[in-house]
Fold each of these.
Amino acid sequence: MAQSTSAEKAPAGKNTVTLIDNGTGRSWDLPILEGTEGPRVIDVRRLYADTGFFTYDPSYGATASCDSNITFIDGEAGVLRHAGYSIEDLAEHSDYMEVCYLLLHGELPNQAQRREFEKAITYHTMLHEQMMNFYRGFRRDSHPMAIMVGMVGAMSAFYHDSTDISDPYQRMVASHRLIAKMPTIAAMAYKYSIGQPFIYPRNDLSFAANFLHMTFAVPCEDFNIRPALARAMDRIFILHADHEQNASTSTVRIAGSSGANPFACIAAGIASLWGPAHGGANEAVLQMLQEIGSKERIPEFIERAKNKDDPFRLMGFGHRVYKHYDPRAAVLRKSCYEVLDDLGKRDEPLLGLAMELERIALEDDYFVEKKLFPNVDFYSGIILQAMGFPTTMFTVLFALARTVGWVAQWKEMVEDPHHKISRPRQLYTGYAKREFVPMDQRG
Ligand code: ACO
């Protein structure tokens, strides 16, 4: 039975909504919260205590799980901004290091801050030498995401001096370590899979160029990094740096809400990102394009995607939040041309196939009505493949780039004095209480 409460007694006004239980006729006024931008939010924190009700929103489609000042998305308008700066501006005028600073500190760095930050990151690019042994425990044909989950989780066993989350300095060092070591861990996962020696980081290179170096260089010859490719890599990192409360970020926050150390939390985020409905989609897009094979077969696959009895979905299409062209996909589409031009691969058949698929899908009533547009994963795979990455590395690159977002969101949560352990409730639909049946009496 619901109790009389402060919320019930709170005066109704323009900053409240009224909840009416039509069964009992009782009503409660719930506060409305307003952010800087975006939909207003009904504050239900006291709902259960005041009314005895839970809310029901299994995939959080209408639930704000936290307040955050890092990233803003307007899915209807196709807008993505970090600390107020549009993703288009950041991709065009900034670089990944600067975006990392922005996500962690809420402001773009001045020159001195930038230098200091870059120095802090490059200071941490090497891995503890003993961690190399871990790679050798994996099968050579392991999926590199499996290796990423293991290696990043293992960081908590190596960097004890940055696992005390109550110490701001340790939190900062852990953040820098995660951002700095992720490219090294990712590149080594790749090297291990192809049986080549690990290449150590080079701190004289930019973040993106160093990653390309560790991935593609070999000890026996010089490796020249093509500036256009380093720039494209950097842009891919920027575009994937953060995306507010998506599945993997929410996973990181939930893991972190219990006080778990940041390395364990980011490993949890990597696991969540792996799925094909999330970061695994870029790998799935390429597999899908290869399966389609030629433009003539596109209609067949479009029909399959529309068929409710067929589990097939057009990978790289649709998004929980964007009901408009994903702004990141628009930037990547342009980048795709630049990379293919630089590599002399403009006639890459997969690009032609992707563009035709996009054209046909965007004109199809099913996709138009459901507002299914290409998402960030639709073009990234084509670029990455042209750069020489195997498909299994695509999600790894996403994880590498997203690490700063996860870290920034984790830090924001831990630094919020009001944060508590996350503990959703449920609508129980199982058996009500029943008597235990001994084995010899069971049918
Ligand atoms: N192809 C065909 N139909 C689709 C697709 C698709 N790619 N995406 C959604 N739909 C349909 C669904 O069947 C559903 O139809 P219905 O209303 O008739 O049942 C409707 O559109 C809504 O789809 P939901 O799955 O309810 O939407 P949700 O927000 O839960 O899912 C998701 C979003 C997971 C991204 C989905 O669009 C999808 O599976 N896309 C393909 C995978 C993909 O590209 N994922 C990458 C996402 S971006 C990222 O993580 C970086």
Amino acid sequence: MCGIVAYVGPRDAQPILLDALSRLEYRGYDSAGLAILNGKGVEVRKKSGRIQELASACQQKPVQGQIGISHTRWATHGGATDINAHPHLDASGRLALVHNGVVENYLELRARLVGHGHKFVSETDTEVLAHLVGDAFAASKTKGEEKLVEAVRSAMKQVQGTLGIAVIHSDLPGLVVGARRGSPLVIGIGHGENFLASDTQALAPYTNRVVILKDQEVVALKAERYDIASPLGIRSDIQIEEIENGVATSDKGPYPHYMLKEIYEQTSSIQNAFRGRLNPHEATAKLGGLNLSSHELRKIERISILGCGTALHAGMVGKYLIETLAKIPVETHYASEFRYGDSPTSPNTLFFAVSQSGETADTLGALREAQRRGFPCLGICNHVSSTIARESNGGVYMHSGPEIGVAATKSFTSQVMIFTLLGLLLGRLRSLSASHGQEILQAIESLPQKITQVLDRSDETKKVAQKYAEAKSMLFLGRLANFPIALEGALKMKEVTYIHAEGYPSAELKHGVIALIDKETPTVLIAPRDGVYDKNLGSLQEIKARGGRVIAVAHETDAKIRDLADAVLPVPETHPLLQPLLNVIPLQLLSYHSAVALGRDVDKPRNLAKSVTVE
Ligand code: M6R
């Protein structure tokens, strides 16, 4: 997590750093800071809270200078305080450093430095890194800019863990040194000015020409040039990439929150996910980016899906879709568990790494592990120039547009749509009939209009939310492909309202969960008229018999559920395989309206970040 921006050039650094940093706030938003070389030394401003707090501090007391580094933080070591905010200084106070990552051996390094007389003011692992670089700089006999590069390399050798860093030193007023190991860092190339940032989004208004730093590389960045070196030597084959300048819009339009805007955007984002990918003549889907021939796709015997949070829930719906349509066994893995576990892999397995941001550290680690084991791993990402998109062997882009609200909404439905297309494609290469394929295609095409129908009933959901928002705990139940929807509904509820919520397969109720049922603990039951409808009705009766209250997600024409449940979130009927895509939307709205009723910070819930770039 955490976002880094650095600038070197002829312009005032402060406004550029603050502006670029605001586009990285999705990476963490508990504190922010900047350090600028002001001609006399390093001048630092840092504040706990949002970047706006830092901007106000800088407005009251501006920092003048044309070279600087900045940071927005998601706390790992030490609370979200002014002191723990980055940048951190070395012992001399002449070197400032910002860091994205985790120094795993920081306690040991800190103890050693304290033994040598170092004093630390923060609780962070990063301050240790600043002192290490500072010590190496002071001890070095090297002259000029290479001295800071060498000092960074020396510190990197001592540090275990991940890092993306930017460093300035008041002895070297035209230089920023950046380095990466694990955490992403890109160089933005301007005219007579250069930038460094955690990702390209930060740089969108300034340049579209970037160089992606590779692992273990260190860059010496000046206004007119940049030199990149790894421990193996200078990089001479530098490829400048031209990125699409998709500046994430900060315009919420008529919506009070990004989350609501993004929920409403699902009518079009789902279309973007399937546009140009339907092949009605062959009753199938076409996905050009897979980089696999029909022959290779037919040889796949297993699929493994890797992801975290909402992306994993989409993968769980994907499992159901692919197993039903293509009859290929699919397993889903928490990316964090897969990367460190011993779970066996079978030959002819195709992996998918699912990630909206394409930067989630655990998903990236799992992708690399799958590739290390010799398997192809395809990405399902939204961010086109993201690390997962670049490192995967091919994939499918979601084309959802920027998702700014921390709670993932439209990315979920786009991911599920892509799994629908994959299921259709793989199914038609096997035994799925053309008529069944056509049914799926027709259902896909009618989805946007059905999503609109769900959204049009947002006010009904709002009333339900207002009635139940005082609950301390909630249960979400669903069966088969609606079980992951229950998990997703519970995750959304926890994330934006802070109400404790659990998702379970409905039948698990009687294996322990039922002990939680009372009139204070509402249950959201996803019960469309499908093959397990009667079973779900049984669960509903069991809950009611114990005094529990039930909010049912059910077909709008279902009078029986309307009689039995305490509240209904109605959805239109669609093909049963696509029904989860509609069922999730009232749950997104339910958590959104509940969060608003409780006065929560909907778009930036406490303790979270949009993109989890640390383990
Ligand atoms: O960017 P990713 O899709 O890889 O993110 C994965 C999760 O961190 C993310 O889905 C998270 O669970 C959301 N905040 C949930 O709303």
